[in-house]
Amino acid sequence: MSIKGLDVSEFQGIIDWDQVKAAGYQFAMIRAGYGFGTLDKQFQRNAAECNRVGLPIGVYWFCYALTPETARQEADGCINAISGYRLDYPICYDIEQATINYAAEYGVTVTKNLATQFVQNFCSRIEARGYFAMFYSNRNFLNQYFPEDLSQRYALWYAYYNSQFDNTRCGMWQYTNQGNVPGISGNVDLDESFEDYPSIIRKAGLNHLNGSIPKPPAQNYITYVVQPGDTLSGIAARYGTTYQTLAALNQLSNPNLIYPGQTIRIPEGGAPSARYYTIQPGDTLSGIAARFGTTVGALQRLNGITDPNLIYAGSTIRIS
């Protein structure tokens, strides 16, 4: 079986999806976002337009994880982003060399074991929320960072730019990044799916294809009183969640609009993270370093701070 598809992100700009469908493409993999809850600028339009024209979609989320726990948090950010859209294809975790380079900037060496944990944590979280999980990789990355049996546990979207397939075990093949598609300006990635994912997903009862909009599982909450200088993204970073989660939980239509003294709910189990800290009035870098058991020099290196005496209340800094 070979099903004709493509994948896109904000870099393809404004897409005419009516033309794409008319050209015979049967599915699209759309970038939903990346890292700690950052949406692709064109995701909402792309997803809504594909749903409108009846073109089946899946999504992918680019990995900027530094720990297995942050990979799980990236999964939550992805699920928050796609809630309300119809997905007939998998949710895919995209882990590439840029992931490794990003981690290295923060002093994290991504080993084979750590890369595998990233995929396992992301995909298991996706599955726990009732969606079909997949991961994306190329041949060199598979050889260097993943065990052979990982593609037996999770579906693989395989990048191999060649006119002839090399018979790698996978469910989907990205065979070029220089495709030309009506309705899209410039080059675009083209894909073939070897599996009828809409049928597989529908028969398994995944991706909430019964017409209902998926909702997060019931959970308990703690409360936090907003302080002067707080931002929702800063609070989310401190408590190991995403600003989208907090906005949805507290029915905040504008996540940039919160007020000192306002009480917001935070998923229980979140605790101020040692990796991030929102600077409070009166804080000093030496005081923050002492509080978290690190050094001023380490904080400067992690955050690109040239003058340790010049920090600002409300800014969120990385601790470790």
How would you summarize what this structure contains?
By secondary structure, the protein is of the alpha/beta class. The protein is built from twelve helices and 13 strands.
Could you walk me through the main structural features you see in this protein, from its secondary elements to its overall organization?
A hairpin with a 3-residue loop joins strand 2 (about 25-35) and strand 3 (about 40). The chain is about 35% helix and about 20% strand. The N and C termini lie far apart (about 45 Å). It is an alpha/beta fold. This is LysM peptidoglycan-binding domain-containing protein. InterPro entries: Glyco_hydro_25 (IPR002053), LysM (IPR018392).
What attributes characterize this protein structure?
21% strand; 320 residues; eight-stranded mixed beta barrel; 13 strands; alpha/beta; globular; two-stranded antiparallel ribbon
Our measurement of the CA-to-CA distance between the termini, rounded to an integer number of angstroms, reads 47 Å
Q: What is the SS-derived class?
A: alpha/beta
Gyration radius, to the nearest Å?
Answer: 21 Å
- Arrangement of strands in the largest sheet: 1-2-4-5-6-7-8-9
Tell me how many strands there are: 13
Taken in chain order, the helices and strands follow as EHEEHEHEHHEHHEEEHEHHEEHHE
Number of alpha- plus pi-helical segments: 12
Q: Stretches where pLDDT falls below 50 for ≥5 residues?
A: 211-219
Shape: globular
Helix content: 25-40%
Per DSSP, what share of the residues sits in E-state strands of 2 or more residues? 15-25%
Tell me about the biggest sheet?
Answer: 8 strands, mixed, barrel
Oligomer: single chain
Q: Give average pLDDT, whole number.
A: 87
